[in-house]
C-alpha cells in the first residue's frame, strides 16, 4: 500500500503504530494540534499513541515515516514512555477540537455565513518540509431539532474560531469526545481525561451519566478526584458519591477536610452514607480501611445457582467475585454470625440445586479490621487468595479486602502518574 500525504484525523484513530521493522508499538488514539493564534495555520505536532499497557504517550510527527490505510510507520522503534502532556497552545483533535463551534466565510457556502457550525473532522496534509498541517476542516451546521445538516469540507483559511482563545469559551460540544470513550474501560477513560485541560475535562464530566462518571472517578489519582469533585455542582457531587463503591467514596472523602466531608455525608441518602461512615472510622492503612462493605454475601440456605448468579454480576470485580461469604441473617454488613466462605471453583463443581451451607470452607482464617498492611499482604500470600473476609470480635462480617485495593495502598500515592522508564524498545 502506498503512503498518503493527506488524511483526515478521524481515519487515523485506531491505526496500528509500527516501528521501522514492522514491530508493533501501539495504536493511534488522537492527534496533538498547535492552535495558538487566530489566522495561523494549525500544525499537527504529533500523535497520541496508546501502548499495549493502555498508557498514552506522545509521538512527534517528525518520527512518522509514512501514513498508510492500515498503519502508521515510524522511523524508530524506540519511543518515549513519558505520559502525554499538553502544553499551552496545544489541543487534542478528537478530545477537544472536534464538535466545537466555529464560523466560516467560504464564498461557496454563502448560506452558512454568520451561522454556527460544528467541526466534525480535520484534514491533515504533509508539506515539503515534512510538517503536517491542518489544511481542510469538515464542518456541519448546528443541528436543529431532528434535522441533521449536510457536511461540508472547507479550506482552513475560511474557518474562524479554531484557536486557543475560542476553545476557552463556554458551550463547546463534547459529543464526539464521548463517542471515543464508548466501550473503553473506566481506567482508560480516566487516563484520557487526565490529558485534557481542566475546562474540557469538566465539560466531559458534566455530560457523563452518574454511574459512568463514578466508575471513572474511582480510577483517578486522589488529587484529580478532589479537583474534579470540586468543579461539580454540590448536588451532582453527592449523586456521584452515592453511585461510587462505599470504599472508594470513603477514600475520596478521606482526602477532604473533615467539615467538607461531613457536608457531603449529611447530604447523601442515609442508606448510602452509613457504610461510608463506618469505613471512615478505620485507619486507611488497615484491613478495615481497605475493605469494601459490599462483597458477595448469602445465607446458608442459598442455592449454588443463586450464588453463581451473584458471582456473574458484571459490577463485581474478578477478585471480589472469587469468594462468596456465608452468614446468618441479616446479610447486610455488619452481618449476622459469619459461618464461612465458598470459593467460586467449589460452586462450579456442585449441582445447581445444592445449598451453599453444605460446601462451606470453615477453616480459612479471616482478617480483623485492625490488621496492618503487612498482615493483609502476608494473609494473601499465605493462602493464595485475591479476596479475604474481615470479621470483628463478635464474628460479624464487616466486609472484604480484595487484592486490587491492597495493591492500590502498597503502591506509591502517585503510581498512576509516574512511569517505570523513560523509553521502550518493542
Please tell me about this protein's structure.
The structure is a single chain. The chain is an alpha+beta fold and 426 residues long. It folds into four domains: 6-87, SH3 type barrels, CATH 2.30.30; 95-167; 175-284, MgtE N-terminal fold; 297-410, CBS-domain. It is 31% helix and 23% strand. The protein has helices at 9-12, 93-97, 164-167, 175-181, 186-194, 198-207, 210-217, 222-230, 234-243, 246-254, 258-267, 270-280, 287-290, 304-311, 344-349, 373-383, 403-410; strands spanning 6-8, 16-18, 24-34, 43-50, 56-60, 64-68, 71-74, 79-80, 90-92, 101-104, 117-126, 132-141, 152-155, 159-160, 297-298, 323-327, 338-343, 387-391, 397-402, 423-424. The strands form four sheets. Strands 1, 2, 3, 4, 5, 6, 7, 9, 10, 11, 12, 13 and 14 form a 13-stranded mixed beta sheet that branches. A three-stranded mixed beta sheet has the order 15-16-17. Strand 11 and strand 12 (132-141) form a beta hairpin. The relative contact order is 0.09.
Would you spell out the secondary-structure blueprint of this structure?
Elements: E1 6-8, H1 9-12, E2 16-18, E3 24-34, E4 43-50, E5 56-60, E6 64-68, E7 71-74, E8 79-80, E9 90-92, H2 93-97, E10 101-104, E11 117-126, E12 132-141, E13 152-155, E14 159-160, H3 164-167, H4 175-181, H5 186-194, H6 198-207, H7 210-217, H8 222-230, H9 234-243, H10 246-254, H11 258-267, H12 270-280, H13 287-290, E15 297-298, H14 304-311, E16 323-327, E17 338-343, H15 344-349, H16 373-383, E18 387-391, E19 397-402, H17 403-410, E20 423-424
Parallel strand pairs: 2-7, 15-16
Antiparallel strand pairs: 1-11, 2-3, 3-4, 3-9, 4-5, 4-12, 6-7, 8-20, 10-11, 10-14, 11-12, 12-13, 16-17, 18-19
Helix pairs in contact: 5-7, 7-9, 10-12, 16-17
Amino acid at each position: 500500500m502506498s503512503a498518503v500525504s493527506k488524511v483526515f484525523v478521524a481515519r487515523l484513530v485506531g491505526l496500528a503504530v509500527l516501528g521501522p521493522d514492522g514491530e508493533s508499538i501501539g495504536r493511534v488514539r488522537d492527534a496533538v494540534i498547535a492552535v495558538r493564534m487566530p489566522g495561523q495555520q494549525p500544525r499537527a505536532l504529533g500523535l497520541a499513541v496508546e501502548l499495549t499497557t493502555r498508557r498514552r504517550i506522545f509521538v512527534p510527527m517528525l518520527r512518522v515515516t509514512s501514513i498508510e490505510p492500515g498503519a502508521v510507520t515510524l522511523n524508530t522503534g524506540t519511543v518515549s514512555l513519558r505520559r502525554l502532556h499538553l502544553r499551552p497552545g496545544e489541543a487534542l483533535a478528537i478530545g477537544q477540537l472536534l464538535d466545537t463551534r466555529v464560523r466560516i466565510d467560504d464564498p461557496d457556502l454563502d448560506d452558512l455565513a454568520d451561522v454556527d457550525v460544528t467541526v466534525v473532522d480535520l484534514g491533515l496534509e504533509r508539506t515539503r518540509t515534512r510538517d503536517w498541517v491542518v489544511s481542510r476542516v469538515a464542518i456541519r451546521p448546528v443541528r436543529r431539532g431532528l434535522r441533521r445538516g449536510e457536511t461540508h469540507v472547507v479550506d482552513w483559511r475560511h474557518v474562524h474560531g479554531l484557536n486557543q482563545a475560542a476553545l476557552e469559551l463556554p458551550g463547546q460540544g463534547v459529543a464526539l469526545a464521548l463517542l471515543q470513550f464508548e466501550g473503553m474501560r473506566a481506567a482508560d477513560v480516566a487516563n484520557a481525561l487526565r490529558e485534557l485541560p481542566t475546562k474540557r475535562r469538566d465539560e466531559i464530566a458534566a455530560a457523563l451519566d452518574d454511574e459512568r462518571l463514578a466508575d471513572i472517578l474511582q480510577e483517578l489519582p486522589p488529587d484529580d478526584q478532589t479537583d474534579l469533585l470540586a468543579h461539580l455542582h454540590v448536588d451532582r457531587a453527592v449523586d456521584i458519591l452515592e453511585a461510587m463503591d462505599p470504599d472508594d467514596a470513603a477514600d475520596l472523602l478521606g482526602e477532604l477536610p473533615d467539615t467538607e466531608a461531613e457536608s457531603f455525608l449529611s447530604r447523601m441518602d442515609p442508606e448510602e452514607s452509613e457504610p461510608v461512615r463506618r469505613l471512615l472510622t478505620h485507619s486507611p492503612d488497615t484491613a478495615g480501611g481497605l475493605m469494601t462493605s459490599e462483597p458477595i454475601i448469602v445465607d446458608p440456605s442459598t442455592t449454588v445457582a443463586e450464588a453463581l448468579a451473584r458471582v456473574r454480576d458484571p459490577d463485581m470485580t474478578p477478585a471480589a467475585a472469587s469468594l462468596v461469604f456465608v452468614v446468618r441473617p441479616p446479610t447486610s454488613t455488619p452481618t449476622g454470625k459469619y459461618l464461612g466462605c465458598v470459593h467460586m471453583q467449589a460452586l462450579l463443581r456442585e449441582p445447581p440445586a445444592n445449598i451453599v451451607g453444605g460446601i462451606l470452607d470453615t477453616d480459612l482464617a479471616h482478617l480483623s479490621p485492625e490488621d496492618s498492611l503487612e498482615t493483609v499482604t502476608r494473609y494473601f500470600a499465605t493462602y493464595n487468595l485475591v479476596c479475604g473476609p474481615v470479621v470483628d470480635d463478635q464474628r460479624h462480617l464487616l466486609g472484604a479486602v480484595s487484592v486490587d485495593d491492597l495493591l492500590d495502598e502498597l503502591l506509591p500515592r502517585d503510581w498512576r502518574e509516574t512511569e517505570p522508564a523513560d523509553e521502550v524498545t518493542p
